[in-house]
Amino acid sequence: MTNRSPFNAVSRRTFLSAAPLSGMALLSGGYAWGSDSATQTRPPYANLNWDSVQAIGSVTHAHCRSQRSLDLLCRRGLRHLAISNYYPSAPCKPDERIGQYNVGQDFGTVPGEGYVHRQFRWNEIIQDPKSGWYDKLPAGLQERMPFEVGGPCFTQIPSDVIICPNAEHHSMTDHNGHFNAVGSEFRSGTFDARSKYMLNKHGYTMGTGLPWKDAFSRMFAELQVADGGGVTINHPVWSGASHKQLLEFLDFDPRVLGMEIWNNTAHMLNGKGWSLNEWDAVLATGRRCYAFAVSDHAHNSDPAFQGQNVLLVDANTPAEDLSAACLRAYRNGDFYACLEGRIKLKRLEQTDGQLHVELSAPCTIRVVSAQGTLHEETGETCRWSLPQGSAALQNHVYLRVEAAEIDGEDQVFTQALPLA
User: Fold this and answer.
1) Which of 280, 404, 250, 272 is nearest to 342 (CA)?
2) Which first-to-last residue range defines the signal peptide (predicted)?
3) Whether pLDDT at 224 is above 70
């Protein structure tokens, strides 16, 4: 798939002129860089030793409930899989079985009761002779019952692959967005997509059935690693999230990590895969907001799918600590987003008034701030002098780097570095 959108699009400077370029002093409670909050992170890459880093391909939004789907991800060299299944929105487990959630689950949101933990046995509920509605289902759906648990979803998980807790949560009562809870064990919803089996009609909420703040709080409460992982805002353009809503999400808690700037499925379905303008507008307010690139469903139909994140983890991390280290990399912004994963970010440092960038292959390299594109050159490295003076730095607010492969379709997007 060819997509040079960031490098062929109209300049973002005009768009950003309408965004609030207020710098970090006027955040009105937003989570800016350098916060003293115990859950707030340092600027991205700040504590990395670039000479001792292992790069780990990762997904934060990839639907996968079969060995074939898993193989397609692993063949691209992805090792950290935060699989984001929904219907129900339940973290994928290595021993998950086909159809197990059609038979039953021990969580759900019920009107009048709220979110509860108890056994829901769907065959018994739907087929109950007094309260059930089996006879109202179409004949084709009746024939599929009673539901039974099948064999394992995955028959061979590579030994170096990490299955990370995650799920895509949706159907909040006060917002129509979708959100991933990377590293969280929180579960919501039912198997009944589009309510074909009428669960939603009979009071068993299809998604979270909660206000988004309540849902987010529950996601945070079940994080596997206290100082790792968090919530991502999925396909914001496709979901129709306004600038104001994006700020509200990010301001709610520093564990709201950021937004998807590329969603392959949205691009395929409706051309709304890119959210670069939305990201830059948020960054221009001085808020911390990480960028994610994801395949979503695309890898299941296109082996050449685009969208992954590359985690930068200390190469000396013991194997038993690697899962937690990956989640901390997401929390700290020690990763970059890319389309295909061929280009490697080898260095991004801001020292002595210079930005130093190194890549693994020749690229068109751009330096971007709240004022638009500041610098562009071609090569594997870039050394660029930062604007001088506190006023200039405040106007630029942040710097980030994007690079497009010269002989290929890959693109890399670093996290933004704050300018104070």
Assistant:
1) 404
2) 1-34
3) yes
DSSP-derived 3-state class of residue 257 = strand
Q: Which fold has domain 344-419?
A: Immunoglobulin-like (2.60.40)
Question: Residue ranges of the domains in the chain?
Answer: 53-96+153-341, 344-419
The backbone torsions φ and ψ at residue 270, rounded to the nearest 5 degrees and listed phi first, read -145, 10
- Residue at token pair 């990762």: 58
Q: Which amino acid is at 74?
A: C
Cβ neighbors of 319 (< 8 A, separation 6 or more) are none
* Residue 153 · residue 67 · CB < 8 Å: yes
Looking at residue 50, what DSSP letter applies?
G
Closest residue by Cα to residue 102 from 62, 71, 65 = 65
What is the pTM assigned to this prediction?
A: 0.92
| Helix-helix angle 243-252:276-283, to 10 degrees | 60
Under 8 Å between Cβ of 34 and 43: yes
CATH topology of domain 53-96+153-341: TIM Barrel (3.20.20)
The residues near 415 (Cβ < 8 Å, ≥ 6 apart) are 44, 45, 290, 291, 333, 335, 336, 400
CA–CA separation, 133 vs 141, rounded Å? 12
As given in the structure block, the two tokens for residue 171 are: 């159907």
Cβ atoms within 10 A of the Cβ of 15, count? 17
Digit-coded pLDDT (tens) for 207-222 = 999 999 999 999 999 9
Output DSSP code: residue 192.
Answer: -
Q: What pLDDT shows up at residue 32?
A: 54
Q: Under a CB-based contact definition with an 8 Å cutoff, are residues 172 and 178 in contact?
A: no
Judged against a pLDDT cut of 60, whether residue 1 lies above it is answered with: no
Joined together, the tokens standing for residue 413 give 């997007």
56 - beta bridge partners? 311
pLDDT over 80 (residue 385)? yes
Alpha helices in 75-211 (DSSP H): 100-103, 122-127, 139-142
The pairing of strands 290-294 and 256-263 is parallel
What does the pLDDT look like over 340-349, one tens digit per residue? 999 999 999 9
